[in-house]
Each structure stands twice: as C-alpha cells, then as structure tokens.
Amino acid sequence: MKVRTELPGVVVARHAEVGDRVSEGQPIVTIETMKLEGQVYAPEVGRLTSVAEVGELLAPDAAVADLSPSRDRPANPSEVLRVALASGDRGRFAELDLAEQGLRRVRRPIGTQDSGIVVGEISHRFGRHTTRRVWLGGDSDRQLGAVSEPECRRIIAAIDHAEANDLPIEWVAVSSGARVSLTSGTENMDWCALVVRRIMEFTQNGGRFVIIVAGVNVGAQSYWNASATMLMHCAGMLVMISGTSMILTGSTALARSGGVPADSDAALGGYEEIMGPNGQAHHVVPDLASAYELVQDHYSLEVERPTRDPIDRDVCEAPLVPGRTVGEVLRSSSNPSRKQPYPVRSVMGALRDSDAPVLERWPDMAGAQGAVVWDTAIGGRGTTLIGIESQPSENGLASGPAQWAGCTLYPGASKKVARAITHASGRRPVVVLANLAGFDGSSYSLASAQLEWGAEIARSVINFSGRIVVVITGRFHGGAYVVFNKTLNDNVRMLALEGTRVSVIGGSSAAEVVLKKDVQQRAAELASSDEVAPHHAQQAQQEVAARFDEVHSVARAFEMGSVDAIIAPEDLRPEVIRELRSPTGPAPRLAGSRGSRARARQQPPR
Asked: What pLDDT is recorded for position 311?
C-alpha cells in the first residue's frame, strides 16, 4: 500500500524506519510545506517496506512510504525463548553481551538489548546429559533484525565463545539483511563479510550450526545461513518454518530493479517453491513449536538413549506393505532373483529402534528420491541411516527421464548421499542399506555432474571418522560398489544378506554386452541345425546370465575378502548393532594426504 502526502513539501523528520511495524494513526514522517509542518500517519496496521528520506522533495500525491499489510510478525527473541525453553527438560537460558574480552553474563529483560540480535547460552537435559548451545536470535522488533556493526560484533563474539567452549550454535534467524541508512554504508557490508569469514573458519574446524528460519531472511542473513549449513563440509541443519523465505532481494525491490518479478518472497525463496526442491533446506515444519520439537529430537540423538526395542528383534516379521512382510523381499526363498521392488522406508523402519525419532533430511529434494536419509537410532545409538529406493518413481522435473529407475543413483541422489555421509562424520555412525545396481550413466546424468557427485561419495567415505556399515540387501554392482568399498576406509564394514548378488555388473548385462561369444556358442549348441532361431539366442542369453550370477555370488565376494560377513535376514538388526558397537580405528587423514596415498598403494584384501 502506498502512503501518500496531499501537499508538496520536504521531508524533515522520519519517525519510523524500514522494517518497523506501525499501528494505525502512528506518524511516519514530518513534512514541511511553504506555510506549515505536518505529519503523515499510517492508515492501518502494517510493516514499512520503504520510507522517504529526510531532505527528499515530494510533489502533491507523492508516495511517502510503502506499507505492507499486517501479517503475523515473526516472534521476537523473548517469545522465541519461551517456546525454546519449554520444548525440553530443564530448559535454561543466560543472556550474554559484549565485554572487553569476549562475552559476559548480563541480567536484564530479554529484548532490552541495544542491538538487533540477542546472544546467550541455552541448555536442556537429555537423560543424564546436559546439552549446552550458544544461542542467537534475530530481533524482529528492531528494523526486522537489520544488521550492521553492533549485530556483527556480537555474532563474531558468539562464534568465538562457541569455539572456545566446544559448543554448537543455535540461531533463530530473522533479518532484513544489512542495515540501509544515511549514517552507515559500505562498512555494514564489511562487517557482514567478517561474519562470513568467521562462520567459514568455525565450520571448517568442525563447528556446527542449527538454524531455524523464523521469518524473511534477506541478503546477508541468507548468505550466512548458506555458509553455515549448505556447503559440503557443514554439519548441523537448517529448518524452515512454512511461509518463511531466504532471499537476496525482496520481491518488490527485485521488480523495481528490472529483475524477473515474483509474486511474493515465498516464490523467490520459500521452502515449498525453492529451498525444499533444491535441497538447501534440510527440514520444513509448520510453526516455531514444531521447529523446536525437531531440534530437541536432533540433540537427543547425540547421546546414548535407552531403547525398549529388543536388540535381537527379527526384522523379517515387520510389515513391508499391507499383506506382506519385510522378510518376503530379504529372504532368498521368496525373492531369489533379488529384483522385487519394495519401499525402502519399510526396511529402514524395521531396522531402526521402534521408539526412536526419525528426522528425514532433504525429503523434498527434486531428483533425489532414489536415496532416503534418516537421522534416527539403532541399538540406542544415534545413526544416519541411508536407504536406496528400489521402486521406480515419477520424475516431476522438466528434464531427465520420465521415470527414475529403482536401485539406481541419479545425480541428485548421489549428492544427497555424499552430503549425508559428510554431515555424519565424527558425530554419528552411518548405515547404508544397499540394493544398488549402480549409477545412471545416461547423457542426462553425465550432464548433471554424475561423475562429480559419485566421486564425492567416495571422498565422504574416505574422510569419514567413525563406523560405516554397508548392508547388501539385494544386488550391488559397478561403480556404486566402488564408492562404498571397504578398501576406502578401514572403518567400513560390509555385510551381505544370504543370496544377494555382488559383482562388477549383473548377469543379464554381462550376457548381453560382454559375453556375446559365450551366448553365441551356447545358442549354436541349442540349435538342432545350422540355423540359430531367436528363441535359441534368448535361452542361451538367460543361461549365460544365470551362470555368471552363480559364479559371481556373494560367497565368492566373501572368499575374496570384499565382504566381511554373510548374514541371515533374521539377524540383520543384531549384526548391524554389533558392528555399530565394535571399536573403530583412528580417524582417517584427509584424502590426498601422504598417509592416505600410502594406504591406497596397498592391495585390496584377499
């Protein structure tokens, strides 16, 4: 809504700033005409998105300000903390502020600080453990959390405090970006850049952020969110509340500057439209209370948690789909070819502790449906559980195949898997349920960085600190077998269910592409005359494929040392838990180091 002046004049005072929420009848500016001074008032409740500058000459009926209609404003830090502290057991908060050296404890009502951000320490009790975090909250009541030197100094001091005390950072992000005013300019951008530098240093040294996007995040705040959670090396997570957005320029300003117009900020950077499909947001929740429920579950998985779920429970008895059990696809007797499609989430659900939370990362990432990533618990231990989907799914993208094939990694799924393993490194073990025919090698996938993301999976495994358990639940072939290989990291354990298939390629592909002479020879033997009929060739191909699969069995992989153990499907859960509880070796050196190259020269186990 345009707020206009009836008379010409010059703006001599501003009574409200961009981002401020104004009430009906509240003065916005004072205008001096030739004969008198007068004030222009807000015609209704709303938030200011632009205000005329002091000294600006206005013609009759000129716009003095833009007023966004009143919506539910983002919660201010005091309101957020009430929700945060009540979300778990024994919630405590102590506010901190700048001192000569770092931060000091202050006692005052929340929201009375003299900057647009609140800093403190928050803690909750999880069983016998207390989890402390450094807490940051953008103040929506102060120019919608606009940032300049005062805010940036506090953010940098908070990161220093977190690093010195080995604490994660929890950030409820509400910010209109770098402050725009007549009294400060490029120095605000310099301070924003210093925050980026400090975030990068902190995360590259193993620090992590949990960010809740609780309102519109503009410019600097969006880049801080990205620097803290979206890069391959980052841990932690980013949660968006439905209706919020991460943008660089507001939709109104973008239209004015000649950019591609958007209907709303949500259309530019909301979860449903942008940040969920592109995989830059990890989770979405309906409201702040739900966000903190998820955050509490996230922290609860970082400590050993008692489980009532029996360690030796038989996963085969769990439901797969109505009328079928998990055992029907895991047992050789009912799935001898290992080609029956099934929903991998059912098998994942059968393996995890039944009383543990499930946090699915990147559930709406477009083109990545072939991999499912859960943070959950197995045997009382927080675990990242990765499943490879064996069912085909429709492709809703404008490019690529009409359908995503099952048991196949496309570029989006490859990226998701690499990020999941990297995020878990040093924090929780990883279990991979692998029914995986390989990487898709189509022109679409190669043009979409398939090679790069496949290599990132290998790098994430090589650099992983902790236990990785790969369970072959069906078929495991080709390059996908290489990037999860136990020779990449001494802490990888490879388990295979009885009757599974492990080879360079599957028997059908081998017979059709590689073993053509064997097929032709067998077809000639089957023919009663010199002429080989089509059915002879078809039968010969099937026989050669079956012989190839029989030779390259999981038993041979075990004999070669490629697989650590062959287990019965009924023993899946206890065997995985045993591996998760087994001691691991020292953390690997980064790939490319001298030690890593020395290990690479060793021969694979036999």
From this structure: 97
